[in-house]
Design brief:
This is Alpha-L-fucosidase. By secondary structure, the protein is α/β, with parallel strands linked by helices. Helices cover 36% and strands 9% of the residues. α1 packs parallel to α11, α5 packs parallel to α9 and α9 runs parallel beside α11. The two termini are 35 Å apart. Bound molecules: 2-acetamido-2-deoxy-beta-D-glucopyranose (4 copies).
Protein backbone atom coordinates (compact mmCIF):
# COMPACT_ATOMS: atom_id res chain seq x y z
CA UNK A 1 0.00 0.00 0.00
CA UNK A 2 2.98 2.27 -0.16
CA UNK A 3 2.02 5.72 -1.29
CA UNK A 4 -1.39 4.84 -2.65
CA UNK A 5 -2.20 8.55 -2.77
CA UNK A 6 0.65 9.32 -5.10
CA UNK A 7 -0.44 6.51 -7.42
CA UNK A 8 -3.99 7.82 -7.46
CA UNK A 9 -2.80 11.31 -8.26
CA UNK A 10 -0.81 9.94 -11.16
CA UNK A 11 -3.85 8.17 -12.54
CA UNK A 12 -5.92 11.33 -12.49
CA UNK A 13 -3.61 13.40 -14.62
CA UNK A 14 -2.68 10.72 -17.13
CA UNK A 15 -5.63 10.88 -19.47
CA UNK A 16 -4.97 9.08 -22.66
CA UNK A 17 -6.78 9.31 -25.92
CA UNK A 18 -6.03 7.20 -28.91
CA UNK A 19 -7.79 8.87 -31.82
CA UNK A 20 -6.92 6.58 -34.67
CA UNK A 21 -6.64 2.81 -34.71
CA UNK A 22 -2.99 2.03 -34.09
CA UNK A 23 -2.94 -0.40 -36.98
CA UNK A 24 -3.53 2.45 -39.43
CA UNK A 25 -0.35 4.24 -38.35
CA UNK A 26 2.89 3.64 -40.20
CA UNK A 27 5.88 2.40 -38.19
CA UNK A 28 8.40 5.12 -37.48
CA UNK A 29 11.62 3.86 -39.13
CA UNK A 30 13.85 5.59 -36.60
CA UNK A 31 17.26 6.02 -38.27
CA UNK A 32 19.06 6.63 -34.96
CA UNK A 33 18.78 6.54 -31.18
CA UNK A 34 20.28 9.16 -28.92
CA UNK A 35 20.30 8.07 -25.31
CA UNK A 36 20.88 10.09 -22.15
CA UNK A 37 20.99 8.42 -18.77
CA UNK A 38 22.78 6.54 -16.02
CA UNK A 39 24.03 2.97 -15.60
CA UNK A 40 20.63 1.59 -16.55
CA UNK A 41 21.52 2.51 -20.13
CA UNK A 42 25.31 3.08 -20.13
CA UNK A 43 26.88 1.09 -22.98
CA UNK A 44 30.45 2.20 -22.30
CA UNK A 45 30.58 5.85 -21.27
CA UNK A 46 31.82 5.50 -17.72
CA UNK A 47 34.13 2.68 -18.78
CA UNK A 48 35.70 4.90 -21.45
CA UNK A 49 36.28 7.76 -19.02
CA UNK A 50 37.15 5.99 -15.78
CA UNK A 51 38.18 2.41 -16.61
CA UNK A 52 36.40 -0.65 -17.90
CA UNK A 53 33.64 -2.38 -16.01
CA UNK A 54 35.62 -5.51 -15.02
CA UNK A 55 35.12 -9.18 -15.78
CA UNK A 56 32.67 -10.92 -15.22
CA UNK A 57 30.55 -8.06 -16.59
CA UNK A 58 29.55 -9.01 -20.11
CA UNK A 59 29.95 -12.80 -19.72
CA UNK A 60 26.48 -13.80 -20.88
CA UNK A 61 26.15 -12.01 -24.18
CA UNK A 62 29.32 -10.22 -25.21
CA UNK A 63 31.63 -12.80 -23.56
CA UNK A 64 33.94 -10.01 -22.44
CA UNK A 65 33.47 -6.74 -20.53
CA UNK A 66 31.47 -4.48 -22.81
CA UNK A 67 31.12 -1.21 -20.93
CA UNK A 68 27.89 -2.32 -19.32
CA UNK A 69 27.25 -3.07 -15.65
CA UNK A 70 25.47 -6.25 -16.54
CA UNK A 71 26.21 -9.81 -17.61
CA UNK A 72 24.80 -8.97 -21.03
CA UNK A 73 22.40 -6.62 -22.73
CA UNK A 74 20.54 -3.67 -21.27
CA UNK A 75 17.03 -2.55 -22.17
CA UNK A 76 18.58 0.05 -24.51
CA UNK A 77 20.35 -2.79 -26.37
CA UNK A 78 17.07 -4.64 -26.84
CA UNK A 79 15.51 -1.40 -28.05
CA UNK A 80 18.28 -0.95 -30.62
CA UNK A 81 17.92 -4.58 -31.77
CA UNK A 82 14.18 -4.21 -32.12
CA UNK A 83 14.52 -1.06 -34.22
CA UNK A 84 17.05 -2.82 -36.45
CA UNK A 85 19.88 -0.54 -35.33
CA UNK A 86 23.38 -1.36 -34.10
CA UNK A 87 24.13 -1.18 -30.37
CA UNK A 88 24.87 2.38 -29.36
CA UNK A 89 28.47 3.48 -29.09
CA UNK A 90 29.26 5.63 -26.09
CA UNK A 91 29.96 9.22 -27.09
CA UNK A 92 32.98 9.25 -24.77
CA UNK A 93 34.48 6.11 -26.26
CA UNK A 94 37.15 6.95 -28.83
CA UNK A 95 37.90 3.30 -29.63
CA UNK A 96 36.01 1.67 -32.53
CA UNK A 97 32.93 3.81 -32.05
CA UNK A 98 30.44 4.22 -34.85
CA UNK A 99 27.78 6.89 -34.46
CA UNK A 100 26.07 6.46 -37.82
CA UNK A 101 22.90 5.26 -36.06
CA UNK A 102 23.09 7.14 -32.82
CA UNK A 103 25.15 7.83 -29.77
CA UNK A 104 24.91 7.13 -26.09
CA UNK A 105 25.63 9.96 -23.67
CA UNK A 106 24.73 7.97 -20.54
CA UNK A 107 27.30 7.12 -17.89
CA UNK A 108 26.93 4.91 -14.84
CA UNK A 109 26.44 7.02 -11.74
CA UNK A 110 24.99 9.99 -13.65
CA UNK A 111 22.50 12.24 -11.95
CA UNK A 112 20.21 14.85 -13.48
CA UNK A 113 21.60 17.62 -11.26
CA UNK A 114 25.33 18.22 -10.96
CA UNK A 115 26.37 16.90 -7.56
CA UNK A 116 29.13 19.29 -6.41
CA UNK A 117 31.16 16.28 -5.31
CA UNK A 118 33.95 14.35 -6.97
CA UNK A 119 33.47 10.81 -8.16
CA UNK A 120 35.83 9.48 -5.52
CA UNK A 121 33.91 11.27 -2.76
CA UNK A 122 30.41 10.23 -3.71
CA UNK A 123 30.57 7.59 -6.43
CA UNK A 124 28.46 9.73 -8.76
CA UNK A 125 29.57 10.43 -12.31
CA UNK A 126 30.58 13.98 -13.16
CA UNK A 127 28.79 13.43 -16.49
CA UNK A 128 25.42 14.62 -15.18
CA UNK A 129 22.51 15.27 -17.53
CA UNK A 130 23.51 18.90 -18.17
CA UNK A 131 26.95 17.70 -19.32
CA UNK A 132 25.37 14.99 -21.47
CA UNK A 133 23.24 17.68 -23.06
CA UNK A 134 26.30 19.82 -23.84
CA UNK A 135 27.95 16.76 -25.39
CA UNK A 136 24.84 16.00 -27.43
CA UNK A 137 24.66 19.61 -28.67
CA UNK A 138 28.30 19.56 -29.67
CA UNK A 139 27.85 16.22 -31.43
CA UNK A 140 24.80 17.55 -33.26
CA UNK A 141 26.53 20.73 -34.39
CA UNK A 142 29.80 19.16 -35.50
CA UNK A 143 28.44 16.00 -37.18
CA UNK A 144 27.18 17.66 -40.40
CA UNK A 145 30.40 19.67 -40.75
CA UNK A 146 32.58 16.58 -40.39
CA UNK A 147 30.30 14.46 -42.55
CA UNK A 148 30.77 16.91 -45.42
CA UNK A 149 34.46 16.02 -45.42
CA UNK A 150 33.32 12.64 -46.76
CA UNK A 151 35.37 9.46 -46.51
CA UNK A 152 35.17 7.61 -43.23
CA UNK A 153 33.26 10.44 -41.54
CA UNK A 154 30.31 9.76 -43.79
CA UNK A 155 30.28 6.20 -42.49
CA UNK A 156 30.73 7.10 -38.83
CA UNK A 157 28.32 9.99 -38.29
CA UNK A 158 24.54 10.26 -38.59
CA UNK A 159 22.89 11.82 -41.61
CA UNK A 160 21.69 15.32 -40.94
CA UNK A 161 17.99 14.44 -40.93
CA UNK A 162 18.60 11.62 -38.46
CA UNK A 163 18.61 14.14 -35.63
CA UNK A 164 14.99 15.12 -36.16
CA UNK A 165 13.84 11.59 -37.02
CA UNK A 166 15.70 9.86 -34.17
CA UNK A 167 14.28 8.36 -31.03
CA UNK A 168 15.57 10.21 -27.95
CA UNK A 169 15.64 7.89 -24.96
CA UNK A 170 16.08 8.79 -21.29
CA UNK A 171 16.65 6.68 -18.19
CA UNK A 172 17.88 8.86 -15.37
CA UNK A 173 16.87 10.04 -11.90
CA UNK A 174 17.61 7.11 -9.62
CA UNK A 175 20.97 8.53 -8.55
CA UNK A 176 19.47 11.93 -7.75
CA UNK A 177 17.31 10.17 -5.18
CA UNK A 178 20.08 8.14 -3.55
CA UNK A 179 22.34 11.24 -3.52
CA UNK A 180 20.19 12.91 -0.86
CA UNK A 181 20.12 9.82 1.32
CA UNK A 182 23.89 9.61 1.05
CA UNK A 183 23.98 13.11 2.55
CA UNK A 184 21.82 11.79 5.41
CA UNK A 185 18.73 13.66 4.25
CA UNK A 186 15.29 12.49 5.34
CA UNK A 187 12.73 11.23 2.83
CA UNK A 188 10.92 14.57 3.11
CA UNK A 189 14.13 16.44 2.34
CA UNK A 190 14.73 14.27 -0.69
CA UNK A 191 11.16 14.83 -1.88
CA UNK A 192 11.63 18.56 -1.45
CA UNK A 193 14.34 18.74 -4.10
CA UNK A 194 12.63 16.46 -6.63
CA UNK A 195 10.87 19.38 -8.38
CA UNK A 196 14.23 21.06 -9.00
CA UNK A 197 15.65 17.81 -10.37
CA UNK A 198 12.72 17.45 -12.75
CA UNK A 199 12.87 21.07 -13.78
CA UNK A 200 16.41 20.44 -14.98
CA UNK A 201 15.29 17.27 -16.76
CA UNK A 202 12.53 19.20 -18.48
CA UNK A 203 14.98 21.86 -19.69
CA UNK A 204 17.08 19.21 -21.40
CA UNK A 205 14.07 17.78 -23.26
CA UNK A 206 13.16 21.32 -24.34
CA UNK A 207 16.73 21.95 -25.51
CA UNK A 208 16.72 18.83 -27.67
CA UNK A 209 13.32 19.80 -29.07
CA UNK A 210 14.68 23.24 -29.99
CA UNK A 211 17.45 21.45 -31.86
CA UNK A 212 14.87 19.47 -33.83
CA UNK A 213 14.28 16.34 -31.72
CA UNK A 214 10.66 15.15 -31.89
CA UNK A 215 10.34 11.61 -30.52
CA UNK A 216 11.09 11.09 -26.85
CA UNK A 217 10.98 7.85 -24.90
CA UNK A 218 11.24 8.41 -21.14
CA UNK A 219 11.76 5.58 -18.65
CA UNK A 220 10.62 6.33 -15.12
CA UNK A 221 12.81 5.39 -12.20
CA UNK A 222 12.86 1.97 -10.54
CA UNK A 223 12.12 0.65 -7.05
CA UNK A 224 15.44 1.68 -5.60
CA UNK A 225 14.34 0.30 -2.20
CA UNK A 226 14.49 -3.25 -3.57
CA UNK A 227 18.14 -3.04 -4.61
CA UNK A 228 20.67 -4.87 -2.39
CA UNK A 229 22.81 -1.74 -2.71
CA UNK A 230 20.19 0.41 -0.93
CA UNK A 231 19.30 -2.30 1.57
CA UNK A 232 22.96 -2.61 2.48
CA UNK A 233 23.96 1.05 2.44
CA UNK A 234 21.16 2.96 4.14
CA UNK A 235 19.88 2.62 7.70
CA UNK A 236 16.51 0.88 7.54
CA UNK A 237 14.27 -0.28 10.37
CA UNK A 238 12.47 -3.65 10.30
CA UNK A 239 9.15 -1.82 10.06
CA UNK A 240 10.30 -0.21 6.81
CA UNK A 241 10.78 -3.56 5.07
CA UNK A 242 7.73 -4.82 3.21
CA UNK A 243 6.73 -8.42 2.63
CA UNK A 244 8.91 -8.63 -0.47
CA UNK A 245 11.98 -7.50 1.45
CA UNK A 246 12.07 -4.02 -0.12
CA UNK A 247 12.63 -0.82 1.85
CA UNK A 248 9.44 1.22 1.57
CA UNK A 249 10.79 4.77 2.09
CA UNK A 250 13.03 4.52 -0.95
CA UNK A 251 10.29 3.04 -3.11
CA UNK A 252 7.94 5.74 -1.91
CA UNK A 253 10.40 8.40 -3.02
CA UNK A 254 10.77 6.69 -6.39
CA UNK A 255 6.96 6.73 -6.73
CA UNK A 256 6.91 10.38 -5.82
CA UNK A 257 9.59 11.14 -8.41
CA UNK A 258 7.68 9.17 -11.06
CA UNK A 259 4.44 10.92 -10.29
CA UNK A 260 6.10 14.31 -10.70
CA UNK A 261 7.90 13.06 -13.80
CA UNK A 262 4.55 12.21 -15.30
CA UNK A 263 3.36 15.76 -14.56
CA UNK A 264 6.47 17.11 -16.27
CA UNK A 265 5.88 14.93 -19.33
CA UNK A 266 2.28 16.11 -19.42
CA UNK A 267 3.42 19.74 -19.32
CA UNK A 268 6.10 19.12 -21.96
CA UNK A 269 3.44 17.76 -24.31
CA UNK A 270 1.63 21.09 -23.94
CA UNK A 271 4.77 23.19 -24.33
CA UNK A 272 6.22 21.24 -27.27
CA UNK A 273 3.39 20.90 -29.80
CA UNK A 274 5.30 18.70 -32.25
CA UNK A 275 6.81 16.34 -29.68
CA UNK A 276 5.70 12.75 -29.22
CA UNK A 277 6.69 11.90 -25.67
CA UNK A 278 6.20 8.37 -24.36
CA UNK A 279 6.39 7.79 -20.63
CA UNK A 280 7.38 4.21 -19.86
CA UNK A 281 6.58 2.67 -16.49
CA UNK A 282 9.72 0.63 -15.97
CA UNK A 283 9.11 0.89 -12.20
CA UNK A 284 6.19 -1.53 -12.37
CA UNK A 285 8.17 -3.99 -14.43
CA UNK A 286 11.15 -3.89 -12.10
CA UNK A 287 8.89 -4.19 -9.07
CA UNK A 288 7.14 -7.24 -10.56
CA UNK A 289 10.49 -8.95 -10.80
CA UNK A 290 10.72 -8.72 -7.00
CA UNK A 291 7.09 -9.46 -6.16
CA UNK A 292 6.42 -12.21 -8.72
CA UNK A 293 9.92 -13.57 -9.27
CA UNK A 294 8.98 -17.24 -9.08
CA UNK A 295 6.04 -16.94 -11.40
CA UNK A 296 8.24 -15.17 -13.94
CA UNK A 297 10.97 -17.83 -13.78
CA UNK A 298 13.41 -16.12 -11.42
CA UNK A 299 14.89 -17.18 -8.07
CA UNK A 300 15.60 -15.23 -4.86
CA UNK A 301 15.24 -11.80 -6.45
CA UNK A 302 17.03 -9.91 -3.66
CA UNK A 303 20.16 -12.03 -3.86
CA UNK A 304 22.86 -10.56 -6.04
CA UNK A 305 24.27 -12.83 -8.74
CA UNK A 306 27.74 -11.31 -8.87
CA UNK A 307 28.86 -10.25 -5.41
CA UNK A 308 30.57 -11.31 -2.24
CA UNK A 309 28.94 -12.32 1.03
CA UNK A 310 26.39 -10.82 3.36
CA UNK A 311 22.64 -11.18 3.44
CA UNK A 312 22.26 -10.22 -0.22
CA UNK A 313 25.57 -11.54 -1.55
CA UNK A 314 26.49 -7.88 -1.84
CA UNK A 315 29.35 -6.05 -0.22
CA UNK A 316 29.90 -2.51 -1.35
CA UNK A 317 33.64 -2.86 -0.75
CA UNK A 318 33.81 -6.09 -2.74
CA UNK A 319 31.67 -5.41 -5.75
CA UNK A 320 31.22 -7.61 -8.80
CA UNK A 321 34.64 -8.36 -10.30
CA UNK A 322 36.64 -7.43 -7.17
CA UNK A 323 40.00 -9.14 -7.00
CA UNK A 324 42.39 -10.07 -4.24
CA UNK A 325 45.97 -11.28 -4.44
CA UNK A 326 46.49 -14.74 -2.99
CA UNK A 327 49.89 -16.47 -3.13
CA UNK A 328 51.00 -13.90 -5.68
CA UNK A 329 48.01 -14.69 -7.91
CA UNK A 330 45.10 -12.40 -8.67
CA UNK A 331 41.74 -14.05 -8.04
CA UNK A 332 38.27 -12.66 -8.52
CA UNK A 333 36.43 -12.91 -5.22
CA UNK A 334 33.15 -11.42 -6.38
CA UNK A 335 32.33 -13.72 -9.23
CA UNK A 336 29.16 -14.53 -11.16
CA UNK A 337 26.60 -17.00 -9.86
CA UNK A 338 26.15 -20.30 -11.70
CA UNK A 339 23.09 -19.28 -13.66
CA UNK A 340 22.58 -15.55 -14.22
CA UNK A 341 19.56 -16.35 -16.40
CA UNK A 342 17.43 -17.06 -13.31
CA UNK A 343 18.66 -14.06 -11.33
CA UNK A 344 17.05 -10.63 -11.22
CA UNK A 345 19.91 -8.57 -9.84
CA UNK A 346 23.35 -8.81 -11.36
CA UNK A 347 25.72 -6.86 -9.11
CA UNK A 348 23.55 -5.46 -6.32
CA UNK A 349 22.50 -2.39 -8.30
CA UNK A 350 21.84 -3.45 -11.87
CA UNK A 351 19.53 -5.99 -13.42
CA UNK A 352 20.66 -9.10 -15.26
CA UNK A 353 20.28 -9.50 -19.00
CA UNK A 354 17.50 -12.02 -18.33
CA UNK A 355 15.60 -9.43 -16.29
CA UNK A 356 16.25 -6.74 -18.90
CA UNK A 357 15.02 -9.01 -21.69
CA UNK A 358 11.84 -9.84 -19.80
CA UNK A 359 11.18 -6.15 -19.13
CA UNK A 360 11.85 -5.23 -22.74
CA UNK A 361 9.38 -7.87 -23.94
CA UNK A 362 6.68 -6.44 -21.69
CA UNK A 363 7.22 -2.82 -22.64
CA UNK A 364 7.88 -3.06 -26.39
CA UNK A 365 4.18 -3.32 -27.28
CA UNK A 366 3.27 -0.22 -25.29
CA UNK A 367 1.38 -1.92 -22.49
CA UNK A 368 3.51 -0.07 -19.90
CA UNK A 369 3.54 3.21 -21.78
CA UNK A 370 1.57 6.42 -21.63
CA UNK A 371 0.25 6.78 -24.29
CA UNK A 372 0.06 2.98 -24.76
CA UNK A 373 1.69 2.81 -28.17
CA UNK A 374 4.36 0.31 -29.24
CA UNK A 375 8.02 1.29 -29.45
CA UNK A 376 7.93 1.33 -33.24
CA UNK A 377 5.07 3.86 -33.19
CA UNK A 378 6.70 6.22 -30.72
CA UNK A 379 7.10 9.01 -33.28
CA UNK A 380 3.33 9.52 -33.42
CA UNK A 381 1.82 12.13 -31.17
CA UNK A 382 -1.42 10.72 -29.76
CA UNK A 383 -3.32 13.48 -28.06
CA UNK A 384 -4.78 15.68 -30.72
C1 LIG B 1 25.45 22.47 -6.29
O1 LIG B 1 25.78 23.80 -6.00
C2 LIG B 1 24.99 24.77 -6.68
C3 LIG B 1 25.57 26.14 -6.35
O2 LIG B 1 25.67 26.31 -4.97
C4 LIG B 1 23.54 24.61 -6.25
O3 LIG B 1 22.73 25.55 -6.94
C5 LIG B 1 23.08 23.20 -6.59
O4 LIG B 1 21.76 23.00 -6.15
C6 LIG B 1 23.99 22.17 -5.94
N1 LIG B 1 23.62 20.83 -6.35
C7 LIG B 1 23.15 19.92 -5.52
C8 LIG B 1 22.80 18.60 -6.08
O5 LIG B 1 23.00 20.12 -4.32
C1 LIG C 1 29.14 2.14 -39.13
O1 LIG C 1 28.00 1.34 -39.02
C2 LIG C 1 27.17 1.37 -40.16
C3 LIG C 1 25.91 0.58 -39.83
O2 LIG C 1 26.19 -0.66 -39.28
C4 LIG C 1 27.94 0.82 -41.36
O3 LIG C 1 27.12 0.90 -42.51
C5 LIG C 1 29.19 1.65 -41.55
O4 LIG C 1 29.97 1.13 -42.60
C6 LIG C 1 30.01 1.67 -40.28
N1 LIG C 1 31.15 2.57 -40.47
C7 LIG C 1 32.40 2.15 -40.56
C8 LIG C 1 33.45 3.18 -40.78
O5 LIG C 1 32.69 0.98 -40.42
C1 LIG D 1 25.88 10.60 7.56
O1 LIG D 1 25.76 9.92 8.78
C2 LIG D 1 26.79 8.95 9.02
C3 LIG D 1 26.42 8.19 10.28
O2 LIG D 1 26.07 9.06 11.30
C4 LIG D 1 28.14 9.67 9.11
O3 LIG D 1 29.17 8.73 9.31
C5 LIG D 1 28.38 10.42 7.80
O4 LIG D 1 29.57 11.17 7.88
C6 LIG D 1 27.21 11.35 7.49
N1 LIG D 1 27.40 11.87 6.14
C7 LIG D 1 27.29 13.16 5.85
C8 LIG D 1 27.55 13.54 4.42
O5 LIG D 1 26.94 13.99 6.65
C1 LIG E 1 2.27 -7.05 -24.64
O1 LIG E 1 3.22 -8.07 -24.58
C2 LIG E 1 3.18 -8.85 -23.39
C3 LIG E 1 4.38 -9.79 -23.39
O2 LIG E 1 4.50 -10.46 -24.60
C4 LIG E 1 1.83 -9.58 -23.34
O3 LIG E 1 1.74 -10.34 -22.16
C5 LIG E 1 0.71 -8.52 -23.36
O4 LIG E 1 -0.55 -9.15 -23.39
C6 LIG E 1 0.85 -7.62 -24.58
N1 LIG E 1 -0.13 -6.54 -24.46
C7 LIG E 1 -0.81 -6.05 -25.48
C8 LIG E 1 -1.75 -4.93 -25.18
O5 LIG E 1 -0.68 -6.49 -26.62
Amino acid sequence: MENANAILLCLIISFISLPSPLTSLPTCEFPAIFNLGDSNSDTGGLSAAFGQAPYPNGITHFHHPAGRYCDGRLIIDFIAEDLGLPYLSAYLDSMASNFSHGANFATAGSTIRPQNTTRSQSGYSPISLDVQYVQYSDFHQRSPVLRKQGGVFEKLLPMEDSFSRALYTFDIGQNDLTAGYKLNMTTDQVKAYVPDVLHQFSNVVKGIYEQGGRSFWVHNTGPVGCLPYSLDLFPITAAQINKYGCATPFNEVAHFFNCKLKDVVFQLRKDLPLAAITYVDVYSLKYSLFTQAKKLGFEDPLITCCGHGGKYNFNSKRRCGSKIIENGKEIVIANACKDPSVKVIWDGIHFTEAANRWMFKQLVNGSFSDPPIPLKMACHRMDH
